[in-house]
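Private note to self, pasted from the team thread so I don't lose it. Backbone tokens:
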């Protein structure tokens, strides 16, 4: 029922090449009732909730179809997430597949997941059919009934999955408690009868803390620990005890150990308690080994004789010792140890790891991967081109040094290193305190880095650049430069006119620089444009300057502190004549013309206001004339006419104050009045996003009843007042 899809497991870590199954990432599974509540609540929150019978039938259909589709999508998402989270037994490692079969029953597990998948498909089919019927609904009531039927049928399907969801939740909890075991890594598997020392050995070699008790079946499941050997991480698995009876009679605890033995490529340690304190004789332990021996095929096997502190191997009865030694065949090893005295514990661990490591290397070498790598390698062996013997070439100077016995590190001839210019060290003492120091090892040439760390490190040691001097004799490099030599002052040999010569050279250099700058001034800068392009560039720049001048002329000339400020109408401010005279007088400007021009503008403004008041009086006269014309009307008609005229005057005054002159449709780029109305409607709908207008998705709950009128005990009589 689940198909053959590509395996993408959320419980498999992709950080390494080997899959590490981590079942703790499976999300909790809600019960059937909780799942119904989740689906319906999400549908209510995420879809519109208001619809009216007055809407268009297409809008009503879309409203209810959206409800049904969203519910179906939510159910499909939840159930699909459950199906994808659980492991597919056919796709995971056979060890985990058989372990799930042992713990949860493969058939029951697959049946539960199959029921969830069938429920998902049923919900999809119900939604598909009901949406098709809602699409042809002829009224809001019919569409609503179909929506309720669709949601009810889908919720009924979910409620029927109560047992499957509960079973999968229990499986999820148990899977989360399983250890994170890697079936493909280096593994040591501990097995044997109960209470033979497997858990104690695991606690000794790993950081695990497995419960150890003096009774059987203390370990009831697989426990995983990790240890390090040869800089590698090893996985140690402690299995429950196995009893010696047929496979069909083994319980779930024993079958976990059998599953691990059957499917894991590992090094198996079979523990034998020779002291028989575990409650089982050596004969019973040998019989168990023989019954599960087929599971040891292609595995590295160690028979570990435990508890030699209670019963030494040397004093064991010969018959029992022979029975154990007969089990050692082929590649099987016999090791002896004690968990109490820790005698042989390290040897057992090292032997098991070495055997498994060698087996893994051999399997890789014998595999196909090695052949693919070897095909890329080519090894060439040069063949002799002639019969001439070509021995090693040793320089003649080296041969002489070897013959004289002076080749290599000789105590008689040590190279010297000067200490001049170096920071003092602990070796600077004795007769060579101010001279050179002999190097102990003449074969090793010390680098500048070595010398730096020997003499104080960075910032303290400074290199001696005298080693780079080019002199006739290299022995002169580190000689101190004297002030007086052969009775003469060294400074006398310095040219006395050296400063004059330096000044002449500097003057000549400055003159050359000045000449170069003068020659460059006469030349125009080279341009990549021809004459036509340069003329075009000039025209463009001229137009840019004109545009810039216009923008400056049209810009506000008010200062920054005045521009945009709210002013008091009673405060004269900048219009004060005395202030203007005082301010402009500082700059020597005659202000009489400015003040007279301002007064004339103020008179015009007052005249404009007077005209408005006169016009208002004229309109009042018109109103009185209209009253005489309505004498023949009834009182109702007169009131209606008067109200219409009053509203018309108010509308005209309001439009005159707040709106510009109305334009024709052609002036607005529209065809006719119908297009104007359509544009206005689109604009009104678009404003809902930023004006805060309500849409069909807004949940509005209006108060239909007043609380104080409708609370408390109802009595006879009216309830419209207290």
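Design output:
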């Amino acid at each position: 029922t689940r198909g053959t899809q590509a395996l993408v497991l959320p419980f498999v870590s992709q950080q390494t090449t080997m899959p590490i199954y981590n079942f703790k990432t499976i999300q909790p599974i809600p019960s059937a009732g909780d799942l119904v509540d989740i689906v319906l609540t999400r549908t209510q929150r995420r879809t519109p909730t208001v619809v009216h019978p007055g809407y268009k039938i297409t809008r009503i259909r879309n409203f209810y179809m959206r409800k049904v589709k969203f519910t179906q999508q939510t159910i499909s998402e939840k159930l699909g997430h459950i199906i994808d989270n659980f492991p597919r037994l056919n796709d995971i490692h056979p060890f985990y597949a058989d372990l799930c079969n042992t713990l949860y029953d493969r058939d029951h597990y697959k049946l539960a997941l199959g029921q969830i998948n069938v429920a998902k498909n049923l919900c999809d089919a119900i939604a598909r059919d009901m949406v098709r019927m809602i699409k042809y609904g002829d009224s809001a009531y019919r569409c609503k009934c179909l929506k309720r039927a669709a949601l009810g049928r889908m919720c009924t399907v979910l409620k029927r999955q109560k047992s499957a969801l509960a079973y999968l939740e229990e499986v999820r909890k148990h899977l989360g408690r399983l250890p994170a075991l890697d079936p493909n890594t280096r593994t040591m598997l501990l097995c044997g009868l109960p209470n033979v020392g497997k858990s104690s050995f695991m606690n000794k070699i790993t950081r695990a803390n497995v419960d150890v008790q003096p009774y059987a079946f203390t370990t009831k499941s697989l426990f995983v620990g990790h240890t390090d050997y040869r800089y590698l991480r090893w996985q140690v698995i402690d299995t429950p005890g196995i009893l010696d009876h047929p496979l069909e009679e083994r319980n779930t605890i024993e079958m976990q150990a059998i599953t691990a033995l059957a499917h894991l490529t590992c090094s198996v340690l079979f523990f034998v308690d020779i002291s028989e304190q575990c409650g089982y004789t050596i004969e019973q332990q040998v019989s168990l080994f023989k019954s599960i021996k087929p599971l040891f095929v292609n595995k590295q096997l160690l028979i570990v004789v435990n508890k030699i502190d209670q019963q030494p191997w040397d004093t064991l009865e010969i018959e029992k010792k022979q029975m154990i030694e007969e089990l050692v065949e082929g590649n099987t090893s016999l090791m002896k140890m004690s968990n109490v005295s820790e005698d042989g514990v390290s040897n057992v661990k090292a032997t098991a790891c070495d055997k498994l490591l060698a087996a893994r290397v051999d399997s890789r070498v014998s595999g196909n991967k090695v052949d693919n790598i070897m095909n890329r390698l080519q090894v060439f062996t040069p063949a002799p081109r002639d019969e001439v013997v070509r021995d090693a070439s040793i320089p003649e100077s080296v041969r002489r040094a070897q013959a004289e016995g002076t080749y290599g590190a000789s105590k008689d001839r040590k190279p010297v290193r000067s200490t001049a210019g170096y920071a003092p060290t602990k070796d600077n003492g004795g007769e060579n305190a101010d001279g050179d120091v002999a190097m102990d090892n003449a074969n090793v040439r010390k680098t500048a880095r070595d010398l730096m760390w020997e003499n104080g490190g960075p910032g303290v040691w400074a290199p001696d650049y005298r080693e780079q001097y080019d002199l006739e004799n290299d022995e002169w490099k580190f000689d101190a430069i004297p002030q007086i030599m052969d009775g003469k002052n060294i400074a006398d040999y310095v040219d006395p006119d050296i400063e004059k010569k330096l000044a002449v050279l500097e003057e000549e250099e400055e003159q050359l620089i000045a000449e170069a700058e003068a020659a460059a001034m006469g030349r125009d800068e080279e341009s990549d444009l021809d004459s036509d392009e340069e003329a075009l560039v000039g025209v463009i720049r001229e137009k840019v300057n004109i545009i810039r001048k216009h923008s400056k002329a049209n810009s506000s000339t008010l200062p920054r502190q005045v521009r945009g400020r709210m002013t008091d109408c009673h405060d004269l401010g900048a219009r004060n004549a005395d202030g203007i005279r005082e301010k402009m007088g500082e700059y020597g400007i005659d202000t009489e013309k400015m003040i007279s021009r301002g007064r004339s503008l103020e008179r015009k403004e007052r005249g404009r206001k007077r005209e408005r008041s006169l016009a208002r009086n004229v309109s009042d006269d018109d109103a009185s004339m209209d009253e005489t014309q309505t004498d023949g009307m009834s009182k109702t008609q007169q009131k209606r006419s008067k109200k219409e005229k009053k509203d018309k005057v108010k509308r005209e005054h309001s439009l005159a104050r707040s709106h510009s002159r109305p334009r024709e449709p052609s002036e607005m780029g529209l065809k006719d009045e119908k297009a104007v109305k359509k544009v206005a409607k689109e604009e009104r709908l678009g404003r809902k996003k930023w004006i805060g207008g309500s849409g069909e998705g807004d949940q509005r709950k209006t108060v239909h009843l007043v609380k104080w009128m409708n609370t408390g005990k109802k009595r006879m009589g009216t309830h419209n007042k207290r």
